[in-house]
């Protein structure tokens, strides 16, 4: 699985952080050191790791705890955000000319990187976007390269242009573009020859093509499993030929993730697509934010953290914490908490964002029925201020009045009062266990 080992390591580090609740600066520093080790072991470029750790450290150490987040969560959030930045922050598309013109894409890469396969995968993607691609067999050296392109082109329903192996690639490219313009193709994808290593002949051949035909995008295909080698190859191609974007193949088998995390930072060139398998449909657009979530194994927890940050009012949270500690919690507070949850999209939505939670709580909708929440709200709103702050005055006749007011059965009012008392008892024990999850500034 992609990034398994890096992901496992980071998740363990974060699990330790989270379980602590209250963190000292030394805790944070120790965890970040572990993050650094994990990245180096994942074969992330040393220079990139250094820059990354500097950025994270500056933000994480001495940072105030934000609304509703404990320091552990804060560190995770910072690591995530810096990881997204490292990979380019934004999704980049292949830059295509308008459909009325021909866009020429030159695919480059070492032998075995997955160039021919990726070329056909991209043709399929562009076809589904309404383009009419032409695949061009410019790899005249590797035995069976032409045939492989032909087979893949057929599978994708995309025409393949070939002149056998006796013509120079630059001449094949020229002829292909002419063929494309006569036959209404608006994307020409040149499958150039790779070598086992970067060598001068290969580079010269690519330069010759670039000098003689208008190449709109030079795209480099690299094998993610080769880690830092992939990054070095990208650097060399960029210096000699100039690349517009990278396609990272075999990410499905890359447990470390070093190439994915380094390429953008080292070359400044975006990753456009990632290869996730041998099938022609196994090509995905590259989203830095989703990739970071994948690496951190966090699912939508990050969205959840974001929500908590946006939606919880710090002063209110602190006041609530004070009330909880003193067990002064009344029905008004209960109501306010419920409204907070509603504002954040309801309990079932929130719980669903926690990885594994959805599966664990199959009957989640029954357990946290948002409609039931509205009935509870109606009951509380039917109470007098005195009843809300001091529920012990709730005798049967008051309960009957509340039930009538809220349009529910009296047994529901009884259940609510009972649940509330139980909850209050639990909350009295809770502040000690919470370790400062709500509000207050800590960790210093
Ligand atoms: P080329 O020499 O660069 O043209 O490489 P090929 O396109 O012939 O691919 C080399 C091998 O890698 C083939 O067996 C492909 O099926 C395989 N391959 C290509 N892309 C991927 C990918 O994203 N994931 C996996 N698992 N295999 C891939």
TrEMBL record:
SMART domains per record: AAA, SRP54, SRP54_N
TM helices/strands, residue ranges: none
Catalysed reaction equations from the record: GTP + H2O = GDP + phosphate + H(+)
Residue ranges of coiled coil: none
PROSITE patterns: SRP54
Keyword Lipid metabolism: no
Compartments, as annotated in UniProt: Cytoplasm
PANTHER family: SIGNAL RECOGNITION PARTICLE 54K PROTEIN SRP54 (PTHR11564), SIGNAL RECOGNITION PARTICLE SUBUNIT SRP54 (PTHR11564:SF5)
Record-given protein name: Signal recognition particle protein
Organism: Diplocloster modestus
Top-level taxonomy: Bacteria, Bacillati, Bacillota, Clostridia, Lachnospirales
